Amino acid sequence: MRLIDRYLLRELLTPLAYCLAGFVICYVAFDLIFHVSQFQEAQMRLVDYVKYYLATLPEILADNIIPVALLLALLYALTTHSRHNELVAIRAAGTSVWRLSAPYLAVGLVLGAVVLLLNETAAPDGAERAREILQNHKAAAHDPASTGAVHFRSDDGARDWVIDGGMNRQTGELTRPQIRWIKQQPGMPERLHAASASFLDGQWVFSNADLWPWGIDQSTIATNYHLTLPETPSWIRLEIRFEGLNRREAAKRPQLAIAELLTYLRMHPRLSPGLRAMYLTQLQGRIAAPFTCVAVVLIAFPLGARAGRRNVAVGVAAGIFICFGYFVVQRIFFGLGTGGIMPAVLAAWLPNAVFGATGVFLMWRL
């Protein structure tokens, strides 16, 4: 790494750290204003506040804070360099525009990798963990570790599952499960009702199960009924996550991990066109999200690197305007893809492509 690269990186990383810290503080402060009564009602302690916001921050960082902070920090650093004619001196020494932008593009790639890592690990489960932290401190009548009622059909379309009492998130135990076989299968009853079910050694063990054989109205009772089925606790957890995603929430931003989406689409090849469009848009949105940081660098560099003694506030104002326009376009296209009006690939990638291509054109003009 050359001396000039280290200098440019140092001048960028300092305002970037300030921007990241400032946005996090603003997010926590505004969220507290709107939810403080709810937290007080749940009698949460200081350590619970910390756990709650540590659970929600990864999603906010990956979706909004990191790209916006990078944009503002980059515009601030470049505008400062331009005011002191440092970029002119560097280019006069024989450094091309693309070579000058290399350290900034490297930062964009690194932050894109951070966004991808957060989206695949902490972000998808963050909202659920935050809800659990809040529910654990409420005097609720139900078990906070248990989900609500669940209803889904197996991936091969052969069984309908209804879990009236929900599923325990920690143990995977089912409360009051019911299974109905759509087609007659050897060794399988037509219906099964049980008090509970646990998954042990690759088999479901149903406690106090009522079994209705095909063509017989009277049920038989089995204390511990062992049954091998393709559905596993992890499979049901995935179904619960997808069942809880409605179209309105899905249109706002990607909310599921790439691995989860690929697994679900593989398990359900016969989804309705509307659901398939929604999940494909979520998938493409997750894949495209890390490249937002690169698009930010491409569009911000030529705007901030123009020669002239300009006020730093001009660069910050330009950053706010670009940021607002970019996210408005991104949300509109994402909503169109979720609704099936636009192909998922175009809905997720077109904003990055348009802003990135505009940045490349401006850098060529520069």
Characterization of the model:
By secondary structure, the chain is of the alpha+beta class. It folds into two domains: 3-134 and 284-365, no CATH class; 157-229, no CATH class. Helix content is 61%, strand content 11%. It has twelve helices and eight strands. The chain has helices at residues 3-41, 46-83, 86-92, 97-120, 123-135, 233-243, 247-250, 258-267, 273-288, 291-304, 312-338, 344-365, and strands at residues 150-153, 159-163, 174-175, 177-181, 191-193, 196-200, 203-212, 220-227. Strands 1, 2, 3, 4, 5, 6, 7 and 8 form an eight-stranded antiparallel sheet that branches. Strand 1 (150-153) and strand 2 form a beta hairpin. Helix 9 (273-288) packs parallel to helix 12 and helix 10 (291-304) packs parallel to helix 12 (344-365). The longest helix has 39 residues, at 3-41. The chain is elongated, with a radius of gyration of 26 Å. The chain starts with a helix and ends with a helix. Residues 139-143 have low confidence and may be disordered.
